[in-house]
Amino acid sequence: MFDIDRWQEIFETIRKNKLRTFLTGISVASGIFILVILLGFGQGMENGIRKEFEADATNRIWVWTRVTTKEYKGLNPGRRIELSNEDYANLNTLYKDDIEYKSDLFRIRGATINYKEESVSYGVNGISPNYQQIENQSMVLGRYINYADLKAKNKVIVISRKIQKELLKDIENPLNEYVQLSGINFKIIGIYSDAGGDREEDRVFIPITTAQNIFNGANKIANLGFTVKPEDNFDKALAVSNQFTDNVKRYLQESHIVAPDDTSAINVHNAINEAKRFYTLTSNIAAFFWFVGICTIIAGVVGVSNIMLIIVKERTKEIGIRKALGAKPWSIIGMILQESIFVTGVSGFAGLILSMALLEVVGPNIEVDYVLNPSVNFSMAITMVIVLIIAGALAGFIPAWKAAHIQPVKALSHE
């Protein structure tokens, strides 16, 4: 039931002790403010890292080779290991049950891209159709390389939005236009975009069979790309991915006669391991932020408790008079708790509103690597304030309990 007299007493006490109440409120508000800001930046780091991994499939695996560094089975170090179509075909056959998407890649060195009088120099790669899924590319216009292109060794090309703007300029629909790669005509069949942004759009793609045939690639491959089939949970996906990685490396080492402990000749990069490290890092940082924020809030709540103890001591004689006139213990407890909850609640909401407003205004404009749009879920923020109010009630309970059980005679004689 709303008791206007009780509220008048609370406001009168606050009015008499403005500075003390203000400083107490500042300690509580700063606690919730710091916690929300820290959690917001923790979420921003998670958003930023997730954005980085959106550039490619999280479960992708890339294979590339270099030179051997160790003697093995009578073969000297310094041999350059080269992947081949046979390696790609054998791996697809051996581990077809584990593979979701697959693509080989052949790099064309020194090729220039020409359109009429315009000329640019970007990466030219021969690929298979699944490369689109591995690199998380989407089509803006037209289509991607398909298996019919591979079989027929078609002279077709897929370019990026960035290259379209720079090379074809004002042509809105460049499909079926022809560009030249080192003097050879290729028909544009599609425009792609990459989740990684412009830095991932510095490449054009043609069928790998065409690339090997025209640019003297024979059966050579520069890279192999795979993604493993999705699993029910992250830990299982990590285990399957690591097992597949080990199998691929072991097969290539055996087929190319490479020492098992030669870490340079056969290289396999598993993106899910990198993702795990980053997500573990963000989880640890978030836990640290929670710890710091909660400690700050506890400090504020302790401040409220100390202030309530002081208030009880100052009002001891008043409380004694109330008890002498028949005030029940729970009415005394309610009076102290109500003031504690009011100061904590108002301060908590002030800190919440200020921190949320700051994140809303500043967050979208932050341009820091691995931090993207720091924010806090509103329901979580409200939950934190409710917990803070409960903590404020607990902070006021001990002083209230002490006040409720004071002897009227002692209270009336208190100076």
From TrEMBL:
GO molecular function: transmembrane transporter activity
UniProt-annotated location(s): Cell membrane
GO terms for cellular component: plasma membrane
UniProt keyword terms in alphabetical order: Cell membrane, Membrane, Transmembrane, Transmembrane helix
Domain MacB-like periplasmic core: 21-237
Residues of the ABC3 transporter permease C-terminal domain: 291-408
Membrane disposition: Multi-pass membrane protein
One Pfam short name: FtsX
Chain ranges passing through the membrane: 21-41, 287-312, 332-358, 378-401
Family recorded in the similarity comment: Belongs to the ABC-4 integral membrane protein family.
Name of the protein: Putative ABC transport system permease protein
Species of provenance: Lutibacter agarilyticus
